[in-house]
């Protein structure tokens, strides 16, 4: 834990305490391991390190928005993989492309003789 402190003279111990302002919401347990319910008081997850300090720069909202857009695009690509191998290599495909392909497939004559 000492790496997170700006003042290198501070030594963290088992009994060291920090206020909740130094931890992200995601650092806390959402459900109690023994009861399966939300905990009555907040407990940190094991191995969590304080990461919010006055000297820590906050991420810009544009960086967060960019990350969110990237995650959405990645999720769509996993759900709807490309039909064409060339699209796989170039990464140039979208939901619209997939819908166009499925529309064309519906209009093809049946090959099973029906």
From TrEMBL:
A Pfam family that the UniProt record links to this protein: THAP
One annotated GO molecular function: DNA binding
Basic and acidic residues composition bias: residue spans: 95-107
Domain THAP-type intervals: 8-53
InterPro entries: THAP_domain_protein, THAP_Znf
Keywords assigned by UniProt, alphabetized: DNA-binding, Metal-binding, Zinc, Zinc-finger
Native species: Eumeta variegata
SUPFAM superfamilies reported for this sequence: Glucocorticoid receptor-like (DNA-binding domain) (SSF57716)
Official protein name in the record: THAP-type domain-containing protein
Keyword Zinc (UniProt): yes
Region of interest called Disordered, as start-end residue ranges on this chain: 74-114
């Amino acid at each position: 834990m000492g790496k997170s402190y700006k003042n290198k003279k501070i030594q963290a111990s088992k009994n060291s305490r920090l206020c909740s302002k130094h931890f992200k919401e995601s650092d806390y347990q959402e459900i109690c391991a023994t009861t399966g319910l939300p905990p009555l008081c907040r407990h940190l997850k094991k191995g969590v390190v304080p990461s919010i300090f006055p000297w820590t720069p906050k991420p810009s909202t544009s960086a967060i928005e960019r990350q969110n857009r990237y995650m959405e695009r990645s999720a769509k690509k996993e759900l709807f993989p490309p039909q064409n191998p060339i699209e796989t290599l170039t990464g140039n495909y979208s939901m619209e492309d997939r819908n166009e392909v499925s529309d064309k497939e519906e209009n093809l004559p049946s090959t099973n003789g029906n």
